[in-house]
Amino acid sequence: MSTHRFRPRYRGMALGSIGLGGALGAASIAMGIAALPLATGALGIALGAAYLASPAWRITVVTDDEGLEVRDRKGTRFRLLWTEVRRVVASPSTRTCFVDGGAPERSLLVPGVGAPAPYAIADRELLFDTILVHVAADRVETVETLEQAAAAKPA
Description:
Elements: E1 2-8, H1 11-30, H2 35-52, E2 60-63, E3 67-72, E4 75-81, E5 87-91, E6 96-100, E7 108-110, E8 119-121, H3 124-134, E9 140-142, H4 146-152
Parallel strand pairs: 5-9
Antiparallel strand pairs: 1-2, 1-8, 2-3, 3-4, 5-6, 6-7
Helix pairs in contact: 1-2
């Protein structure tokens, strides 16, 4: 069994927002409490802090020999047995894969290098390998990148 936690992918941007917001707030105070820099500084700090404190970073993916389970602080969001996986679209070069559980609320994107996702997953390489080991080979589609595979699909 392994556990993989969602992580903020844009942590640097959030910290930059907090830092810039703090600088704007300090400049506002130095200028005698100018309203616009103070408001934008407070907004930058609030948005950066909200991103870093998001409940999404409490989501975990747990895998075992039977399947994978996505959990949050309230409990299990969904459990997907390996035999229930409809397909996996995998990009070994970017270590990205999409696990199709038959419905969006029962599917999972494991974002790798350059994948368009607002989150990262801790130990994603291990999760990627675990998924490919447990899902039947006839249900795994290997692609260069997930974006190219999506663009090549007919509408």
